[in-house]
Design goal:
Helix content is 33%, strand content 27%. The protein has helices at residues 13-21, 36-45, 61-68, 83-93, 105-111, 114-120, 134-144, 175-183, 224-232, 247-258, 276-285, 331-349, 360-363, 366-375, 410-413; strands at 2-6, 28-33, 51-55, 73-76, 96-99, 123-125, 148-162, 186-190, 193-197, 204-207, 214-219, 238-243, 267-269, 272-274, 295-308, 311-321, 356-358, 379-382, 397-405. An eight-stranded mixed beta sheet has the order 10-11-12-7-15-16-19-18. Strands 3-2-1-4-5-6-17 form a seven-stranded parallel beta sheet, sandwiched between helices. NADP nicotinamide-adenine-dinucleotide phosphate is lined by residues 6-7, 9-12, 33-35, 38, 56-59, 77-80, 82, 100-101, 127, 129-133, 173-174, 177, 336.
Length: 424
């Protein structure tokens, strides 16, 4: 099994690479990017002969196709606006592909490559990280337990639990994506139709388990909305994605956006054309890092409101990920970087039957997928364990089917002995 990771020394790949190297049957892991010395350094840090550095620029499609032909699957962990050309290159090379999401618009463009991927006999899984990714799988799985679905809420938050330094600005993932999340209109589903609302509208306070607590979140452009209304079906009328960043971080990014420092419009500075987006992102990427990396706990929550056997029912699924002590990365890196490793292995082993361009909720059989997360030291728990969760040493992502709530007045509407809906 030979897997190439484009963006292989980037933030999310810090868990993809070690996860692949600790999985059975993996012969070679390619760590690819434009900077050969960074690729070599990260490959060497793995202390494993199977980790190989690869120097490639994904914008050079002929070179990329040549390189991809040497691998069984490519994980695209670069910046999301390269998704379309990299998907096209994977199809041309005849290998499987997965990525970490296309911020809605790129995802729609990629879905148009479906028949080309089918003709090539390959599978391209779009957005298999935490969210999009595990979130989509939880959502589709929950929907199979309901007769109809009225509303789906997708929520994401987290909190730093160790490391960091006061005054150091540390984006949790690619600042380019965060700039776009803070500036592009966000798709939301209302009355069964997608409409767009301004980024950072829709203020919502919600409570997560400690140490996250009560947070403020906003509508954000995300690719779950590009596929889940259709794949969930069952008459779903309402769906939205809300992310809650720490207030100080949110204010800083919002200010940069408001000042035009994250704009993709070209400006001429002393005769040179530049895009503030590129300049500010590069400056932020080069900022000094804290001596101890910021490690977070990361949570994705998917709430489905609908009906089962004539009774109103709300299902809430929650994926909680703590830092990985051995890999020295936070929960947000573990829950984003491990799913593409699982995806690549399933694709190569033939465990994903679909061909073409598909979202994770179609590609993955949910229970084996959750079990695969379990097999990596994570736990699947049901309601009683939910708030009692303790940080366990070593590792962990936990997926909880937290509550099977019945809305309204259950004592009047439920049958005497109601069978609980099993979480998985
Ligand atoms: N689904 C989810 O849950 C989720 C969560 C977080 C992030 N994401 C997405 O994951 C992606 C990666 O995020 P990240 O935080 O890991 O970003 P990152 O740290 O900036 O890493 C991206 C890597 O891509 C490489 N790259 C950029 N342009 C390239 C090119 N033309 N050819 C080859 N390599 C190139 C960069 O290296 P060089 O510049 O040296 O080439 C960099 O190492 C982003 O698109 C982000 O939006 C998804």
């Amino acid at each position: 099994m030979k897997v190439l990771i484009l963006g292989g020394y980037g933030a999310m790949a810090q868990s993809t690479v070690p996860d692949l190297l600790s999985s059975p049957g993996v012969e070679r892991v390619g760590i690819a990017g434009r900077n050969a010395s960074k690729a070599e350094a990260f490959a060497a840090s793995q202390r494993d002969d199977r980790a190989t550095s690869v120097s490639v620029d994904a914008r050079d499609s002929a070179d990329l196709v040549r390189e991809l032909k040497r691998w069984d699957c490519v994980i695209n962990s670069t910046w999301y606006d390269l998704n379309v050309p990299i998907t096209e290159a994977a199809i041309a090379a005849g290998i499987h592909y997965c990525d970490l999401g296309g911020l809605y618009h790129q995802t729609l463009r990629q879905l148009k490559l479906d028949s080309r991927a089918k003709d090539a006999g390959v599978t391209c899984i779009l957005g298999i990280g935490s969210t999009p990714g595990t979130m989509n799988v939880m959502g589709r799985h929950g929907a199979t337990k309901l007769d109809n679905v009225r509303k789906v809420q997708l929520r994401s938050s987290g909190a730093v639990v160790s490391g960091g330094e006061p005054g150091k600005f540390v984006p949790p993932y690619a600042i380019r994506t965060i700039f776009d999340e803070f500036s592009l209109d966000a798709p939301i589903l209302r009355k069964g139709k997608i409409r767009f609302v301004p980024a950072l509208s829709g203020l919502e306070r919600s409570e997560f388990m400690p140490p996250v607590g009560v947070v403020e979140g906003y509508y954000t452009i995300h690719s779950e909305l590009a596929t889940m209304p259709k794949t969930i079906g069952k008459g779903v009328q309402e769906m939205d994605f809300i992310v809650a960043f720490p207030p100080e971080f949110r204010e800083t990014v919002a200010t940069l956006v408001r000042l035009g420092l994250a704009s993709r419009e070209e400006s001429t500075v002393e005769g040179t054309k530049v895009r503030p987006y590129d300049v500010t992102s590069s400056v932020i990427d080069a900022l000094p890092k804290p001596k101890q990396p910021e490690l977070d706990v990361d949570i994705q929550r998917c709430v489905l409101v609908g009906e089962k056997d004539g009774n109103p029912m709300t299902l809430r699924y929650e994926a909680v990920t703590w830092p990985h002590e051995k890999w020295k990365v936070g929960g947000g890196v573990v829950d984003t970087g491990v799913p593409p490793s699982i995806a690549a292995q399933w694709l190569i082993r033939g465990k994903v039957k679909e061909r073409g361009v598909v979202p994770p909720e179609i590609a993955f059989d949910p229970v084996p997928y959750f079990q695969e997360l379990n097999a990596r030291g994570r736990k699947i728990a049901t309601a009683p364990d939910f708030w009692a969760t303790k940080r366990r040493s070593g590792f962990g992502q936990s997926i909880y089917c937290a509550f099977t709530l019945v809305e309204g007045r259950p004592q009047m509407r439920l049958p005497q002995k109601r069978k609980p809906v099993p979480p998985f």
